[in-house]
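Exam revision sheet. Question 4 asks you to relate a sequence to its structure. Input first:
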Amino acid sequence: AEYGAEYCWAMPETFVFAHLLGIFASICFTIQYLPQAYLNFKRKSVKGFSTTGIIIKFIGASFLTVNSFQQKEVLAVIAYGLVNLVQHSIFMVQFTIYSSDDINKLGDPKYLLWIAFPIIPIYLAYQFPQTMAATNSMKPLTQVISHVPQLIECVKLQTTKGVSLSSQHLNFVGGISGLYMCLLLPPVAKTTYLIYLNSIFQALS
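Answer key, structure tokens:
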């Protein structure tokens, strides 16, 4: 395999450990947003949880999933993107249900339309594969940008009650594990480093 082959033959223990770290990071990211989804469900509200931030994250996760699959990244990176897509899709449903001020009425259905967005990176990757050199930066870029609306939301409401701290803790641990994996087993796309670094930064801020 073109990915980390020298590590596989020269240092099999390091290769296995790196993959275990990647799997652990994927597990953290898999369950990362469960506390946030539960908090939204428990409150029957998404107040304090930025819809704009999640839409931006969804765009980045779409490009990461498609590009990493097309470029044959390790399973941990592909799984990270795919799990993000599923989690953010769940939030789109919650935004639709809970975004209305009246709990007896549905919110804006426009959020559900975003679930179809992955069609765009799929089309670009297969019809214009050369664009992946540029779109690989979408995930780290959107990760950074998506944090701004959430910070603004917290400052505006003067509270972080709409954000699950447990989700942020899992984000931090997953980021650390994923970054260590990249240091041991360098990824195909160098922007993958930024993805895990951004997870750490977001959790700390």
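Marking note for examiners. Confidence is low (pLDDT under 50) at residues 1-10.
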